[in-house]
What does this fold into?
Amino acid sequence: MRVSVWKGGADGAFREFDVPRHPSQTVLDVVTYIQRVLDPTLAYRYACRVGMCGSCAMTVNGVPRWTCRTHIDRVVRDGSLLIAPLRNLPIIRDLVTDMSDFFEKWARAKGQFSGSRSRHDDFHAVTPDSADRVQADAGIECIGCAVCYSACDVVAWNPDYLGPAALNRAWTLVKDERDGARLERLRSVAGDAGCHSCHTHMSCTERCPKHLSPTASIAGLKQEILKSVVRREL
Amino acid sequence: MLWIAQRASAAVLAVCVVVHLATIIYAVQGGLTAAEILGRTRGNVGWLAFYSIFVLAASVHAPIGLRAVFLEWLRWRGASRDVALALFAGLLAWMGMRAVFAVFM
It folds into this structure.
């Protein structure tokens, strides 16, 4: 199998390697083989190898994916493979990107839980089947792998855009009845950098390895902001 | 607020476009002449109100859409963009209302 792998920084280029095929081989197996056998200088990230940490995300034949959960059989085309770093993030070296912007945008979207009770109060009982909790649960399993961020065209066009993951995180907190910063959060996710810039292309939903729908979360944020404007809260 | 204005104007435009197309098809199939059409629109406050709303909705909707196009495709943002879009909105409204009054007066 011919594998082209991105080498270098933003001004780098693809370099070709010949890698033997094996049954049940994943893209991460291929990258690891190249680093261990063919080119020890190759930089890439991984940790868990079982789709829990999200650190091995790369662009495989033009599509952002978790490489540890992607079998070669599913993606190889005419015996060749193109492996690049994630789009929309600055390249540090080879397949490693700088994810600072991605996580700073989570902070800008007020992605931190802001409790409304102190240690002196009783527990806040949350009904698991309440409408708000069900909506929050639908987006809560995000592990921050940046696949959606890499797939998003709006991020590519408007670098200030917070992106699907940060907005999805904000949505799960807006729907968390224990959280006390709803309006502040809605304010920070509105406008040109926020949910109102989403074009509903649904690339994030299409590519999310956890099968979440950031598009639905973003649509929910738009509705919540509209309701708050009508109620004159914002 | 811009997002709300764009969505609200889109809802108005959806209705206006359907009525406008239906009117065109009716007028063409019925074989109305220009004089006959003008005979129906001149002095008709209903058509004046309908097409005024149509023009104003388009004048609100189009510049807000262009605002995003300018940001995403040209990286044009800030006061210069917004002034240019306000002028464009004014131009659309002026040209549209000129046409509306031309068939009303």
Remarks:
- The CA atoms of residues 191 and 197 of chain A lie 7 Å apart.
- Chain A is about 35% helix and 15% strand.
- The radius of gyration of chain A is 20 Å.
- The longest helix of chain A spans residues 214-230.
